[in-house]
From TrEMBL, chain A:
It comes from the Bacteria. It comes from Paraflavisolibacter caeni. This is Uncharacterized protein.
Automatic annotation (TrEMBL), chain B:
The keyword Transmembrane helix applies. Keywords: Membrane, Transmembrane, Transmembrane helix. This is HTTM-like domain-containing protein. One of its GO terms (cellular component) is endomembrane system. Residues 11-281 form the HTTM-like domain. InterPro entries: HTTM-like (IPR011020). The chain crosses the membrane at residues 20-42, 69-88, 95-112, 118-138, 159-179, 249-279, 300-322, 346-365. It is found in: Endomembrane system.
Length: 172, 375
């Protein structure tokens, strides 16, 4: 192949990469992807910065609450993945609760598959909790999400929580 | 177009022998520092979390395949990696290595978050096609003994492949930079780097290394300087790919950039460093005599030692792939050593300690290295 052809091919690859960027930003990031993390969010100078958090607790039969390590409970090595996983769990819990209201839809294949997947998830979580706390018997998981504030000007972290949301997942 | 033709084909030309040396360095880097990713920890247990990217192979599935599929994928990935190292059917091994990684990681990223360490794993696909298995390989020995025909890429094709890899690196940085600019990083009254430092520090509890030091800095000029430097570096990266010499300076800056990201945000992009190494001035080096004289006895000894170490590691990783299902990677030699000593994994820090002075030095200064070895 002539050099000129290779240069044309090179330009074509560049165009393809731009289309790929366009799709990733305005539709959905494909995989494989060459789009690097952008960290595009910004905070104003001397602003009050909002810091989100996402904690998981295990509740035992005595209603005692234990703060648990998300990575260990869900058997995942990276925290960034765990946070996304919790988003999916919340969505599926919502779907189950929504479909429960309509018995017809509750018997659909889609929801039966989700319920089967939930059973596997519960058995994995229980196994991991058993390994972490051998003497405890847990009955549910509680996901608490919320936001806290940090003052960049005063360099102070405020402990009050706002926009708090809770998701309870029964393990029995 | 003529300028592009001149710049690309003059500057990115790398000899097949240097590509072969790079292949060895690439594999040694993985063996010593990073290890390989494992896929066999994935199973149906994770179906409740299954949320693949819309545009991915994993989205063609309703749930995770069963564990034996991932074990098979991991074993093929490991074997193809060692075949690249030894130079056995190097072109095909390189393609298989990249494909199995992409297929496996499709499912790893089916929890909704895509990681961005792909450059390390697509490099073999490109360089396999460029002919990095031509020398210092079993393929080369087989060709000599059977007098079979060479399967080498033409110089133009090889240069084209390397320049496309450079384009992909430049483009990756550009994607991050352009989105930052769109998000408003350029505005004088915002402190974007500082904002992300707080976010990582308090939301993700990334408080190691120099995060504590940076979080106390309250100087608008300092933070704005970091914002503008990041923006210009990331956006400018794409333009730099037209000529290898300019590109090298951006790669040096990238090493420093990754170092800052590690120290400040505790995020590691260490694996990219070995990809950057491809673009150094290979011609400027004088190599140890055992590389230039393949029949020397030192050469055989080194080959046998390297083969035995890599063979042991191959068995170790295969054993792990078949029997251990809760690990997300197959550890490097440093990882195994640290594990045996019950010490935390320091491979990330070690990579930086080793790479920053060497890589920055190589890229900044046209230094003639003359390594003398005992005959």
């Amino acid at each position: 192949m002539k050099k000129k052809r290779y240069v044309q091919l090179y330009i074509l690859v560049a165009l393809f990469l731009f289309v790929h960027l366009f799709i990733a930003k305005f539709y959905s990031e494909p995989y494989p992807s060459l789009v690097f993390p952008s960290f595009s969010k910004i905070g104003k100078r001397h602003d009050i910065i909002v810091v989100p958090f996402q904690n998981v607790y295990a509740i035992d039969k005595m209603h005692d609450t234990f703060f648990v390590n998300k990575k260990k409970v869900f058997s995942i090595s990276k925290l960034v993945h765990v946070n996304k996983m919790i988003e999916t769990v919340k969505l599926k819990e919502y779907l189950i609760s929504k479909y429960k209201e309509d018995i017809k839809q509750y018997k659909s294949k889609k929801i039966i598959d989700i319920l089967n997947d939930k059973q596997l998830f519960i058995s994995l979580t229980k196994k991991n909790l058993q390994r972490l706390y051998p003497n405890k018997s847990f009955v549910s998981l509680l996901i608490i999400e919320g936001k806290r504030k940090y003052s960049a000007k005063k360099q102070e972290f405020y402990n009050e929580v706002f926009d708090e949301r809770k998701t309870l997942i029964k393990l029995i | 177009m003529i300028l592009l033709e001149k710049f690309l084909f003059q500057s990115y030309n790398t000899s097949t022998k240097h590509l072969a040396i790079y292949r060895i360095i690439y594999c040694v880097f993985i063996i010593v520092f990073t290890g390989l990713p494992s896929f066999n920890w994935l199973s149906n247990y994770f179906n409740y979390f299954f949320s693949p990217p819309k545009l991915s192979i994993a989205n063609l599935f309703d749930s995770f395949p069963n564990q034996s599929f991932f074990t098979f994928l991991s074993v093929i990935n490991i074997i193809s990696f060692f075949f690249i190292f030894w130079g056995i059917w190097t072109k095909y091994s390189s393609i298989i290595f990249t494909c199995t990684y992409i297929l496996g990681s499709n499912f790893v990223f089916s929890f909704g978050k895509i990681d961005h360490g792909i450059l390390l794993y697509i490099t073999p696909l490109f360089l396999g096609l460029a002919g990095w298995g031509r020398y210092y390989s079993f393929d080369n020995w087989r060709r000599k003994t059977t007098h079979s025909e060479e399967d080498t890429a033409s110089t133009d094709r090889k240069t084209f492949i390397i320049s496309v890899l450079a384009l992909m690196i430049g483009f990756s940085f550009f994607t991050a930079g352009i989105v930052k600019a769109y998000g408003g990083w350029w505005k004088w009254n915002v402190e974007a780097v500082r904002f992300h430092l707080y976010d990582h520090y308090y939301s993700w509890e990334r408080v190691k290394y120099l995060a504590n030091f940076f979080i106390k800095i309250d100087n608008h000029l300092f933070w704005k300087l970091l914002d503008y430097l990041t923006l210009s570096f990331e956006i400018g990266f794409l333009l730099s790919v037209v000529h290898r010499n300019i590109f090298k300076y951006f790669l040096s800056a990238a090493v420093i950039f990754h170092c800052f990201v590690l120290l400040m945000f505790n995020i590691t992009f260490a694996a990219n460093l070995i990809v950057y190494l491809l673009f150094i001035d290979w011609e400027k080096f004088r190599y140890p005599s055992f590389i230039n004289k393949p029949n020397q006895s030192t050469n055989y000894k080194i080959k046998i030692i390297a083969f035995l170490i890599s063979l042991s590691l191959l068995f170790c990783w295969i054993y792990k792939a078949l029997n251990v299902h809760d690990t997300s990677d197959y550890p490097s030699i440093i990882g195994i050593t640290m594990n045996l000593l019950s010490k935390p994994d320091i491979s990330t820090i070690l990579i930086f300690l080793l790479s920053i002075p060497t890589l920055a030095f190589i890229l900044f200064i046209q230094w003639k290295m003359d390594i003398k070895t005992t005959q």
